[in-house]
From TrEMBL, chain A:
Pfam families for this protein: GST_C_3, GST_N
PROSITE patterns per the UniProt record, alphabetical: GST_CTER (PS50405), GST_NTER (PS50404)
EC code: 2.5.1.18
Keyword line: Transferase
Gene behind the chain: LOC106845585
MF GO annotations: glutathione transferase activity
Protein name (database record): glutathione transferase
Cellular compartments per GO CC: cytosol; extracellular exosome
Residue intervals of the GST N-terminal domain: 3-83
GO BP of this protein: glutathione metabolic process; xenobiotic metabolic process
Top-level enzyme category: transferase
Source taxonomy: Eukaryota, Metazoa, Chordata, Craniata, Vertebrata
InterPro entries: Glutathione-S-Trfase_C-like (IPR010987), Glutathione-S-Trfase_C_sf (IPR036282), Glutathione_S-Trfase (IPR040079), Glutathione_S-Trfase_N (IPR004045), GST_alpha (IPR003080), GST_C (IPR004046), GST_superfamily (IPR050213), Thioredoxin-like_sf (IPR036249)
UniProtKB/TrEMBL annotation, chain B:
Protein name per UniProt: Glutathione S-transferase
Family of the protein in this entry: Belongs to the GST superfamily. Alpha family.
Spans through the membrane: none
Entry-linked CDD domains: GST_C_Alpha (cd03208), GST_N_Alpha (cd03077)
Keyword list, A-Z: Transferase
Domain GST C-terminal as annotated: residue spans: 85-208
Gene giving rise to this polypeptide: LOC106824251
InterPro entries per UniProt: Glutathione-S-Trfase_C-like, Glutathione-S-Trfase_C_sf, Glutathione_S-Trfase, Glutathione_S-Trfase_N, GST_alpha, GST_C, GST_superfamily, Thioredoxin-like_sf
Domain of life: Eukaryota
Lineage, uppermost ranks: Eukaryota, Metazoa, Chordata, Craniata, Vertebrata
Keyword flag Transferase: yes
Gene Ontology terms for molecular function: glutathione transferase activity
Reaction catalysis annotation: RX + glutathione = an S-substituted glutathione + a halide anion + H(+)
Native source species: Equus asinus
EC code: 2.5.1.18
Length: 223, 222
């Protein structure tokens, strides 16, 4: 029996969270090794485990993969969550890269100095309400199906719903005018694997807090 | 006969250049519609052609694709430049995402605040010689083959060689201690389709200059 994938990251969402969501949605059990200090990161680097000296890193199927997209693409293809052909994949990629752009804004907001956060938040909310959510609502409206692409579950649904949870945490009112997205969020949340992941005690990580931020700054030697 | 892909972007490298390189390497002729004014950009947005109100956008096989990676992934898969199975693809993805990270630093250099530029150049050079180039040299050394993955041409070779040209433009001495990368650069540059792309008059765009940065600022309002 193959070893479970092993995730190397700090104990928080960051860039590993979409990977946790996707593995969970695919019904794949995984293990995690948490970096607690900069020494832990040094050790991983000195071991030669990190191709570009960075995490996330996931040990899976005999590989030590770094780079989120490499990891996510591999998992998605392995578990048939990447569409049935190159055209479906193109749509999935287009949608999930939009999700990734917004995620990136959120990531940087969460580690910005407090005096910069308000302006960044305003900018983010504007993009959410006027660019991203309308684009995805329009996709669902265009075909009226239960899933974003190809009338079946794909990584596009998982990554988008993860984003909708983040948006909901930031400001629930942002989702008010997007009934199809709200319905997608409810449907996907009810899938057995996702439901399990959303319950307390699962590998899902909570939002960044001050304590976690301090740890992250030490581990990665950020100012 | 299928229409040629149509690229929508400004007349410069930016985020479209890897797409030009990949299409060219695959031997695919393409057309370009250049966004020259803010009005051109507004028109594209109002047409509903841009899913997230952004370019690059490529019209290809009946789709209006945005997001560089979506476009590149489609082209690579279509033209058999994405490895033979998911494991080769994982390696290709890992390598090209490293390329993309360094590329991003170089891409954003012309638009960084002048006070920060020197520090950014120092960081780019440090990352190039201490993180990225050693990693890729090590891959080539590990298997001794002519291509990065799977002993045949893939997008990994194309994207990496494009990056090596950028590194060389920044500072040729950065490539000094990487003989296998220099050899890869020479070999890939000699492939007929790539050779053609690199010649004057090819679709390859020149390095960014102040004038084109100012023009981009006006069009994209940043």
């Amino acid at each position: 029996m193959a070893a479970k994938p092993k995730l190397y990251y700090f104990d928080g969402r960051g860039r590993m969270e979409p990977i946790r969501w996707l593995l969970a949605a695919a019904g794949v059990e995984f293990e995690e090794e948490f970096l607690e200090t900069s020494k832990d990161l040094e050790k991983l680097r000195n071991d030669g485990s990190l191709m570009f000296q960075q995490v996330p890193m996931v040990e899976i199927d005999g590989m030590k993969l770094v780079q989120c997209r490499a990891i996510l693409n591999y998992i998605a293809a392995k578990y048939n969550l990447y569409g049935k052909d190159t055209k479906e994949r193109a749509l999935i990629d287009m949608y999930i890269e939009g999700v990734a752009d917004l995620n990136e804004m959120y990531l940087f907001w969460s580690i910005s100095p407090p005096n910069e956060q308000a302006a960044k938040m305003t900018q983010m909310k504007d993009k959410i309400a006027n660019c991203y959510l309308p684009a995805f609502e329009k996709v669902l409206k265009s075909h009226g199906q239960d899933y974003v692409v190809g009338n079946r579950l794909s990584r596009a649904d998982i990554h988008l719903v993860e984003l909708l949870y983040t948006v909901d945490e930031l400001d629930p009112s942002l989702l008010a005018n997007f009934p199809l997205l709200k319905a997608l969020k409810a449907r996907i949340s009810n899938l057995p694997n996702v439901k399990k992941f959303l319950q307390p005690g699962s590998p899902r990580k909570p939002p960044m807090d001050e304590k976690c931020l301090a740890k992250v700054k030490e581990i990665f030697q950020l100012k | 006969m299928a229409a040629k892909p149509m690229l929508h972007y400004f007349n410069g490298r930016g985020r479209m250049e890897p797409i030009r390189w990949l299409l060219a390497a695959a031997g695919v002729e393409f057309e370009e519609t250049f966004i020259d004014t803010p009005e051109d950009f507004e028109k594209l947005k109002n047409d509903g052609s841009l899913m997230f109100q952004q370019v690059p956008m490529v019209e290809i096989d009946g789709m209006k694709l945005v997001q560089s990676r979506a476009i590149l992934n489609y082209i690579a898969a279509k033209h058999n430049l994405y490895g033979k199975d998911t494991k080769e693809r994982a390696l290709i993805d890992m390598y090209i995402e490293g390329v993309a990270d360094l590329n991003e630093m170089i891409l954003l250099l012309p638009v960084s605040p002048p006070a920060e530029k020197d520090a950014k150049i120092t960081l780019i050079k440090d990352r190039t010689t201490n993180r990225y180039l050693p990693a890729f040299e090590k891959v080539l050394k590990s298997h001794g083959q002519d291509y990065l993955v799977g002993n045949r041409l893939s997008r990994a070779d194309i994207h990496l060689v494009e990056l090596l040209y950028l590194v060389e433009e920044l500072d040729p001495s950065l490539l000094t201690n990487f003989p296998l990368l220099k050899a890869l650069k020479a070999r890939i540059s000699n492939l007929p389709t790539v050779k053609k792309f690199l010649q004057p008059g090819g679709a390859r765009k020149p390095p960014v200059d102040e004038k084109s940065v100012e023009k981009s600022r006006k069009i994209f309002k940043f």
